[in-house]
Amino acid sequence: MTQFTSIKIAQYSDATAAVQVVFAGEELSFAIEAEGVMGAAGKTVERAAKTADFTGKKSGIMHLLAPEGMNADRLIVAGLGKADELKEQDWINLGGEVAGKLLALKAEAAEITFPAAATAQQAADFAQGAYLRGYKFDTYRTVKKEADGDKACEITLKVQDAAAVEPLWAEAEAVAEGTLLARTLVDEPANTLGPVEFAAKAQQLSDLGVDVEILDEAKMQELGMNALLAVGQGSVRPSRLAVMKWNGGKEGDAPVAFVGKGVVFDTGGISLKPGAGMEDMKGDMGGAAAVIGLMKALAGRKAPVNAICVLGLVENMPDGNAIRPGDIVKTMSGQTVEILNTDAEGRLVLGDALWYTQDRFAPKFMIDLATLTGACMVALGGHRAGVFSADDELAAQICDAGETTAEKMWRLPLGDEYDKMIDTPNADMRNTGGARWGGASTAAVYLQRHTNETKWAHIDIAGTAMGSKKNAISQGWASGFGVRALNRMIKDHYEG
Predict the structure, then answer these.
(1) pLDDT at residue number 145
(2) Which of 208, 327, 388, 399 would staple 458 via disulfide (CB 3.0–4.6 Å)?
(3) What's one Pfam family here (predicted)?
């Protein structure tokens, strides 16, 4: 990846950069800080605004080239609308929109004068949005189009009290870095990111104080993770389980736990997927990407919480050693599963990873994230992830955090009627519901059977982790969905 924005926080000072950014409220009202930047150009700005029908409406942007009366090449005016009504995500989005304009102009440096009436947290939120917008995955482009540009925009956010903003920005930046890690991993091609390479990415978090343990196939075999290993046995690339521990909370306090599906490439195995669109299956590790991104965010901001993150890392390939439809394997839980469809592999990986997590760490709760089912996409499209949980409080905490961060989610049902659909006379369960209908829920109840009554939620991010709609802070294929929402959930409910 290339990061095209760098952010610095500074006190108010005279304008020096060639590109200046100020803010306008509704009816083109300017704070005194913006008027100080514009100086004699204020009248020019008012005339230009009338011509452009720019009124300061929220998210509106006006651009002036070399405004008379200013010692600057360009002036950008960003609309706030009714500033006192702006929510957290509005400030983040505005940061992304302003950064997007700066990148389109190929600005190498810009100074943004933030209104003094805004809070330090709002300034940090704005900066986070600008930073997130700068992400671009171009690692493998050796000949770049000149139109794309190749230099980062150095953004200086000028505020009334830099000392108040800087620690908040440091925290927001850590969360953004976690999100960008998740995006990068999802964008990375599978030929360079196998299970071993993914596990090495987890190992790198030890630099932030994370305890990392990597379980190889021999260790997983010893533990009885036969379902997870069955998925990877058709690949020449060995499977791994990455276990990350952050001890930022009180000693002895039970951790919160997150488990990610990390199928680095999913052909479907013997139940082979259609060829069209299969290239997107490099992103079938979006759940693991979100979980490692979350751990980077927690460690990066030194979150006062104990957290466990577990990644089940495999590749699903159809060679002569691959599992077959009709095979029966014994899971780590001791339950047996009949594999009717080898393309319903993510739940096999997660089932063993969930059992391992609850058995070893006895967490307060477990949340798993997975690009698990096309059925969830049929229900919710690319707009929301599906949340499944028998615990109303946990489900509400997740969904509320999703609304706050615009990583939106919607609760979908579990229940006996779905659980009965995965019964089979040949084993304790089967890995599909046996029909097209209710596929997201039958996948979820399979996972539920591996939680051992631990408080648990499943988030199906099949429609949101990759190929989702572009927005103010995410313009690429991979979104990093889940990092910001789950970080917020932890911060709101489980720290201290």
Answers:
(1) 57
(2) 388
(3) Peptidase_M17_N
Check whether 261 is labelled as a binding-site residue: yes
Which is the catalytic residue, given 8, 245, 273, 455? 273
Among 28, 479, 36, CA closest to 286: 479
Position 231: which residue type?
A: V
Q: Which two tokens stand for residue 85?
A: 């009504």
Give the per-residue pLDDT at 66.
82
Which pair of structure tokens corresponds to residue 418? Answer: 């779905």
DSSP letters, 17-71, are SSEEEEEEEGGGEE-HHHHHHHGGGHHHHHHHHHHHT----TT-EEEEES-TTSS
Q: Which residues pair with 266 in a beta bridge?
A: 316
> Residue 423's pLDDT is what?
98
Q: What is the pLDDT of residue 12?
A: 97
Class (C level, CATH) for 4-159: alpha beta
Q: How far apart are CA 304 and CA 496, in angstroms?
A: 6
The domain spans of the chain are 4-159, 188-494
- Strand partners of residue 240: 313
Residue in this structure with the two tokens 């339950």, named with its chain if needed: 335
Report which of 56, 123, 74, 186 is spatially closest to residue 474, judged by C-alpha positions: 186
> Annotated catalytic, 273?
yes
Specify the DSSP class assigned to residue 118.
S
pLDDT of residue 148: 58
Check residue 307 and give its pLDDT. 99
The confidence score (pLDDT) of residue 408 equals 98
pLDDT of residue 340: 98
188-494 domain in CATH 3.40.50.10070? no
Residue 343 in marked binding region: yes
* Residue 14 counted as an annotated binding residue: no
Enumerate residue ranges in the chain where pLDDT < 70.
144-150
Which has the closest alpha carbon to 64: 74, 50, 56, 53?
74
319 appears as a binding residue in the annotation: no
365-421 confidence digits (pLDDT tens): 999 999 999 999 999 999 999 999 999 999 999 999 999 999 999 999 999 999 999
Strand partners, 153: 5
pLDDT for 411 equals: 98
Report the sign of the C-alpha dihedral through residues 275, 277, 281, 284, in that order.
Answer: negative
First-to-last CA distance in the chain? 35
**Per-residue pLDDT at 139:** 92
* Two structure tokens written together for 383: 């707009």
Element (H, E) at 221: helix 217-223
